[in-house]
Amino acid sequence: MSDFLTRDPLDVAALLASVSTEGCGATTAFVGTVRRSADDGDVAGIEYSAYEAMAESEFGRIVGDALVQWPEARIALRHRVGYVATGEASVVIAVAAPHRLTAFHACRFVIEETKERAPVWKKEHFASGDAHWVEPARG
Amino acid sequence: MRIRLLVFASYADALGRGEVELDVAEGATVADCVAAVRALPGMGAVPPSPAVAVNRRYARPEQVVAAGDEVALIPPVAGG
């Protein structure tokens, strides 16, 4: 589909393997998962949609911004679009670096920027059959 | 000039479709395009200053748009 978006289930191990090299002593992964929360009610799953052409570019810019700050990091990101059932991963960010501070910082930066910038939306689907767009809480 | 404007998620639901052609003046800005969209039926709930992308990059309200630009209204994002 693209470098960053996929309709397929996410493979965390494969993404970690894709960034690891002999020079990397530290590898981190952020995995975002669709959860069932008491506040939200009986969420069966989340339908993710994106402005796909822009998401490609924006994810590229986010990774680029991370590499400016942490040039020794190796970064992979995959975001699912389409229906993701409760318990399944919606986004994976894998970062490998020589040392752990870089790996932690770069990984966190990429997920925070993703949440702020990526043109991706989510619609919660309930067991009842209802669905509504999620407006994220900020701050 | 004609501008192709894309909408997504809740804005697309409100408009009833994912894109619309707008007629705007030469030299129109992003803000002018937003005003034109907000005047369409069902689009009154779009905020006065939503996030907007021009040619797949976030743009400021004062940015001038050109014929053939791809303009998109971006509802509050919820990725990650």
Could you characterize the architecture of this molecule?
- The complex is a heterodimer of chains A (139) and B (80).
- With 139 residues, chain A is of the alpha+beta class.
- Chain A has one domain: Alpha-Beta Complex (Aldehyde Oxidoreductase, domain 3), CATH 3.90.1170.
- Helix content of chain A is 32%, strand content 35%.
- Chain A has three helices and eight strands, in the order βαββαβββαββ.
- In chain A, the strands form two sheets. In chain A, strands 1-4-6-2 form a four-stranded mixed sheet, with helices on both faces.
- In chain A, a hairpin with a 4-residue loop joins β7 and β8.
- In chain A, α2 packs antiparallel against α3.
- Chain B has a single domain, classed as Beta-grasp domain (Ubiquitin-like (UB roll), Roll), CATH 3.10.20.
- The model of chain B has no long low-confidence stretch (mean pLDDT 96).
- Classes of the chains: A alpha+beta (139), B alpha+beta (80).
- Chains A and B meet through β3, α2, α3 and β7 of A and α1 of B.
Order of helices and strands of chain A: EHEEHEEEHEE
Which CATH top level class of chain B fits? Alpha Beta
The major beta sheet of chain A can be summarized as:
4 strands, mixed
Task: Give the radius of gyration of chain A.
Answer: 16 Å
Number of helices of chain B: 2
- Any low-confidence stretches of chain B, pLDDT <50, length ≥5? none
Morphology of chain B: globular
Most extensive contact: A-B, 28 and 17 residues
Structural class of chain A: alpha+beta
Termini of chain B, distance in Å? 37 Å
* Count of extended strands of chain B: 5
Biggest sheet, spatial arrangement of strands of chain A:
1-4-6-2
Annotation field: number of helices of chain A? 3
**Main structural class of chain B:** alpha+beta
Task: For the record, give the distance between the C-alpha atoms at the N and C termini of chain A, rounded to a whole number.
Answer: 32 Å
Number of domains of chain A: 1
Question: How many strands in all of chain A?
Answer: 8
Bin the helical content of chain A.
25-40%
